[in-house]
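Box 3.1. Reading complex inputs
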Amino acid sequence: MSDEELMCKYQEGEMNAMDELLIRYRNPLYRFALRLSRNATEAQDIAQEVFLKIHQFRNEYRPIGKFRTWIFSIAHNLCISRMRKTKWLVFWPRKHDAPDELMDFESPDPSPQQVASGNEMSEIVKRCIQGLPFLQKEALILREYENLDYREIGQILHKPVGTVKTLLYRARVQLKNKLLPYMGPEGGYNV
Amino acid sequence: MFRRHVIKELSAYLDNQLSERRAKTVKAHLDSCAVCTQELFRLKKLSEALKTWSLPGLSPDFDNGVKNKIVRAELEKGEVTMKKRTVAILIPSSVLAMILVIAFLGSMQLYVKRGLRGRLKGAVEEISESYSQPLISLSGKSKQQHADAAAFGPYDVNGAGGSITRSAKMVGGIKSSMGDDRSWGEEGTLSVTSSREYASQTEPAPGQGSIIVVEPVLPATGEGKKIIRTANVNLEVEDGNEAFKRASLICQELGGYLASSNFYKDKEGRQGGTITMRIPKDQFLVALDRINSLGKVESSYANSQDVSQEYANLNTQLGTAMIVYNKMLEALQRRQVSIPEAMRLESELTPIRKRIEDLKNKVEYLNNAVSFTTITVSFHEPRVSEKVLKEQKRSIQENMLTARINFLKLLGNIIKNIPAIIGVILLLSTVLVIAYLFVLLVIRFIKRG
């Protein structure tokens, strides 16, 4: 059963549909929110709020577009709203944050010494992505990790496809420049 | 084949987001361009590197959290619905209440217009009644006497040894200083009547309060005995001025006279005084009874002194002295004496005559003391006088009446200005609603960014 059909059933009052939607989307939404936000608690809160919005606005849903686009659009709006409220667009860590949730770096650019100690590629990638501008980061996350096409990303970000294309290109150029020293012996060059 | 590299297209090419035609073109370029091919390779490696970003797992109670939030939202939504329902009930109720209030105020306006004049008139009459004074009528010997008596002033009554006539003049003076309308008879005794208070003051009070009253115990009076009687009575009276006048009147009516009197007014405005009156011995008990009825008796003391022996001795001595004197005078008249001897005898008679005069005076004094008893009446107004209470009560009544009148006037003004008040309320409500809507619009505009 497709997402849209599940949502229609939920509209009709079948509460089990929500369980299925939760199974399908709790992890993508959580990952999306976690990659955009600062900590797991906040990401989980956003993801839960997305499902709450789905419940609240279930009667306004029309199966015209993809459900996935709609649900990520809600998540995007919530992240923007939360970002405006908490101003966590600034990624510099706050001193009063919990130690395990601290992004204990002074700059988004990791130093080679940090990598030399072990396989910390994940941490490096995370820091590099978090150093991107918000829209580039969001477009990249939606593309790389959620496999949404450009049109869906454009619908979620309320941007045209060309803008999405540019956002992704610029994001990849920046990441490539930062991550190439860690990716292999071959050097890179900028065009 | 291409003058320019397709590096900018490679990102979309890698994501398979190019059009079919554009994708073929890029693919053809990549076949011939090592630079772009290398770049595509790096992008693929970058994409692989990005996949290494691992994330912590989701909390196991995520689903429960979602359901709890949904339930909570439903509850809040129910409360909001309830609020909306409440408002939906409240607004029509308020409108209905306002209509009722307006109708009530309209009817009140008519009622007040019709009844305000009558109420004010009644209030004025009530005030007039409250201000009305008790009527006092006096009768005395002549108007001229009271015109003379007025010159004494109301409190200049310290007339030791004065007569009852003078006391009556003083009463008249007091009354004339009060400015009351008075009428004087040509003959008869002075009478003071107060239309409201006289009856209650002339009759003994049914209860004397908590004060221990010591009733005078008169000594036994034997036939022919010479007894001097005195009495002291302390009274608490409601009106010191009135008590003074009535005591003087009692003294006059019983054929006595005022030996002395004193009248004062203390710092708190309480009136008091002391009257010493001489009353014929036959009227002693009557006088005490009437004096006791002037007010509340705080203490009473009566004393009698039997002077019969002294009186008899004086009479004996007087008789002896008279015999001696007469005999010496007779001897002097019968004998032929020379002038020097006559002068000597005369000088011997002089002390005898003087002693006779002294004895006569003492006998006269005793006769006077026995025939006229002495009653000293001390009176004062109580600390919490009923008169003061009455004045305060009347003052409170006047204030309440004034407040009622002012309230009625205010109510009348409010009712008169109802249209203006409603207009102002509507105007303010409109302004507030517009301001509220404006604020809502601004908030919505800000939210939309």
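In summary: Chain A has nine helices and no strands.
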